[in-house]
Amino acid sequence: MNTAAKLTGYAAVLALVATAGWGLGAVAGPDDGRAEPQRAKPSKHGGHDGDTKKTAAQDPAGLASTANGYTFAPATTRLPADGGTFAFRILGQNGKPVKKFAVEHEKRMHLIVVRRDTSGFQHVHPTMAADGTWRIDMRLPKAGSYRAFADFAPEGGDGQTLGVDLSVAGNFEPVDHPVSRTATVDGYEVTMTGDLVSGRSSEVTLRVRKDGRDVTDLEPYLGAYGHLVALRTGDLAYLHVHPEGEPGDGKTEPGPEVTFAAEVPSADTYRLFLDFKHDGEVRTADFTLPTRGQPVPKPTGSTTDSDDHDDEPHGHGD
Questions:
Q1: What is the mean pLDDT of residues 28-44?
Q2: 288 and 305 in contact (C-beta within 8 Å)?
Q3: Could you give the percent of the chain with pLDDT greater than 90?
Q4: Nearest to 181, CA basis, from 287, 72, 306
Q5: Are 266 and 156 in contact (CB under 8 A)?
Q6: Other beta carbons less than 10 A from residue 214's beta carbon
Q7: Is 303 exposed, middle or buried (0-12, 13-18, 19+ CB in 10 A)?
Q8: What are the beta bridge partners of residue 243?
Q9: How far apart are CA 148 and CA 132, in angstroms?
Q10: Which pLDDT does position 88 carry in this prediction?
């Protein structure tokens, strides 16, 4: 076959492929704002999820504002120190707001906000307007750069965690968080046992005590006796896990211990935040823990984690 004939045949094949592709697109119809993920991604909710265990080490969540066809789009990234409304949308591949979300642990949206030095942790639940805009009143009383994580599952899709940076103007005073397995909050003492092991599932257990006695009547909060968020200190890679068992399953006790299974994405030092509910109020206990075998990081400043609790809001919302 001569060169001209080869080129003519190649052009004909290209035309056939293009025509078939247009036909398939016409059958599929327009995007309704619920973007199809570009690749399968397991929910970041629930460390007991087997698929999450398989992929967490290769695919840390929360490091990008756009992933899998979804974009976390805040109305503004500058927030006033005296508080205000934080508004955002989740956009689909067509740039339109996603308006249909699945209920995950009793909420359609979990918003986690933390300063980049991992102080000022808040876990709140905004409400969505008919146009797909989520809003919540928020106060970030200390200046600095913050990371906001939108943790959600679009209706019919996999769980997603997207992150954006926010800023509060003013003089920034960084806070050190020395390694600690014990936290004290509002008279409660919470102790962590177990180790984080890079690359495989590991168990950590939180024991809640008050006035020297075990708390054996923890209350369900978002369908569980506790929620644990782990953040890698170097870049705030995110993992949100829930405890083994659940209230009302006939075998899970309401304290004093809550056990979690989690797989951290790499060897590093992690900040862990436990939400638990007792006497009608949600509280947050925080810990700093290197993975097994990691050197203990040395403090770089004079401020410690315990200094940061008294004037930071716990930040829980409905």
A1: 40
A2: yes
A3: 66
A4: 287
A5: no
A6: 12
A7: middle
A8: 260
A9: 18
A10: 98
| pLDDT tens per residue across span 202-251 | 999 999 999 999 999 999 999 999 999 999 999 999 998 879 899 999 99
Question: How far apart are alpha carbons 111 and 127 in whole angstroms?
Answer: 11
Type of residue found at 21 = G
pLDDT of 29 strictly over 90: no
199: confidence class by pLDDT, cuts 50, 70, 90: confident
How far the first Cα of the chain sits from its last, in Å, is 73
Residue 283 pLDDT level (bands cut at 50, 70, 90): very high
Token duo for residue 42: 């397991």
Write phi, then psi, for 145 (nearest 5 degrees): -95, 130
3-state secondary structure 142-198: CCEEEEEEEEECECCCCCEEEEEEEEECCCCCCCCCCCECEEEECCEEEEEEECCCC
Q: Are 240 and 229 in contact (CB under 8 A)?
A: yes
Give the separation between CA 257 and CA 276, rounded to whole angstroms. 11
